[in-house]
Amino acid sequence: MTGFAEHRSIATVALVVANYDEAISWYVDRLGFVLTEDVDLGGGKRWVTITPRKGQGARLLLAEASGEAQRHAVGNQTGGRVFLFLETDDFARDHALMLEKGVEFREAPRHEAYGTVAVFADLYGNLWDLIEPKR
């Protein structure tokens, strides 16, 4: 298509959470993410972003649910499908560390044509893939 900027990227993905502070704690303590921003927007709203330590790619905006529809979406933003993909350069290391930190894996690691992968759940039940792609 013509007319669009040549260099664009998906920079941020919103993840609806039940509580800012419990979500920050879980992602920092269990997955080793870094809190990159926590800005008070007033009225109980905050701009909270996290990223994997030394990671690349999109950051996560932790968006505290407001209203009944958003509260119902917490933990099921994709209707039970894997939602996010955490890519690693060392699957065995990260899988073992995540297990040690209490992350719930829903399956044993498996080897696919695209890499080594296992599904895990975050604190609200959203499904993620931990994946080491084939290089």
Description:
- With 135 residues, the chain is α+β, with helices and mostly antiparallel strands.
- Helices cover 21% and strands 41% of the residues.
- The strands form two sheets. Strands 5, 6, 7, 8 and 9 form a five-stranded mixed sheet that branches. A four-stranded mixed sheet has the order 1-4-3-2.
- The longest helix is centred in the first third of the chain and has 12 residues.
- The radius of gyration is 16 Å and the shape is globular.
Describe the secondary-structure layout.
Layout: E1 12-17, H1 20-31, E2 33-42, E3 45-52, E4 59-64, H2 68-73, E5 82-87, H3 91-100, E6 104-105, E7 110-112, E8 115-121, E9 127-133
Q: Low-confidence spans: pLDDT under 50, at least 5 residues? A: none
Gross geometry: globular
Distance between the termini: 30 Å
Number of strands: 9
Percent of residues in beta strands? 35-45%
Mean pLDDT: 95
Sheet of most strands: 5 strands, mixed
Q: What class would the helix/strand composition place it in?
A: alpha+beta
Alpha plus pi helix count: 3
Summarize the structure.
With 135 residues, the chain is of the alpha+beta class. It is built from three helices and nine strands, in the order βαβββαβαββββ.
Please tag this protein with its features.
single chain, four-stranded mixed β-sheet, alpha+beta, 9 strands, 135 residues
